[in-house]
Amino acid sequence: MADYSTVAVVKEYLGIPTGTTSEDAGITAALAAAEDRIDKYCGRTFVVPDAATARSVAPWSYDVVILPAELAQLTDLAVKTDTTDDGTFDTTLVAADYYAGPSDQAPFLEIRRVGGSWPRPASGRASVQVTGWYGYAMTVPAPVTQAATMLAARLYQRRSSPLGYQTGTSPEMGVIRISRIDPDIAALLTGYRKVAVA
Predict the structure, then answer these.
(1) Measured at the alpha carbon of residue 98, what is the angle toward residues 95 and 103, in degrees to the nearest 5?
(2) How many CA atoms are closer than 13 Å to the CA of 55, on its beta-carbon side?
(3) Neighbours of 178 (CB within 10 A)
(4) Of 101, 111, 105, 103, which is closest to residue 131 (Cα–Cα)?
(5) Is 122 exposed, middle or buried (0-12, 13-18, 19+ CB in 10 A)?
(6) Which residues have a Cβ under 8 Å from the Cβ of 94 and sit 6 or more positions away?
(7) Phi then psi for 181, rounded to 5 degrees?
């Protein structure tokens, strides 16, 4: 299923008439591959969450929990702790006990404890449960949609150049090598790549 762009948008981009359905399967496959490639290139997913879910995590330190995935918003955020190391989250914290960071805008990557500490049992068991809307944002960013459309179109058209070469538009141009990463797509995604930490 396409999440970042649609078959209709890619068809319009390629100049394929809306009523032509014979290419839909190929475009759908290209879209899936494009979205997977974007996720790997950026080190994150842009699929919009459709509900708040609970995830368990072991604290990184006594005052910081690094979330298992980004939070797209703070609506419905709930934090519980396991204070007895038995796998049950028996204590529900109130909003004054923690805050999401590292900034005041999504995506949120961590939860910091206020006026206390996270339980860190010797067992190493996950002692914090965070319920929230896990995702990068509540809408797919426009540059990601454009990149997905462009990349899907490019992948779809590769059937005309299966070895990575295509004939030039004139005899003088000869054979042209297709670059591995489209610089325009890379530019669109630059601000969305997750910073690698050594």
Answers:
(1) 110
(2) 20
(3) 13
(4) 111
(5) exposed
(6) none
(7) -120, 120
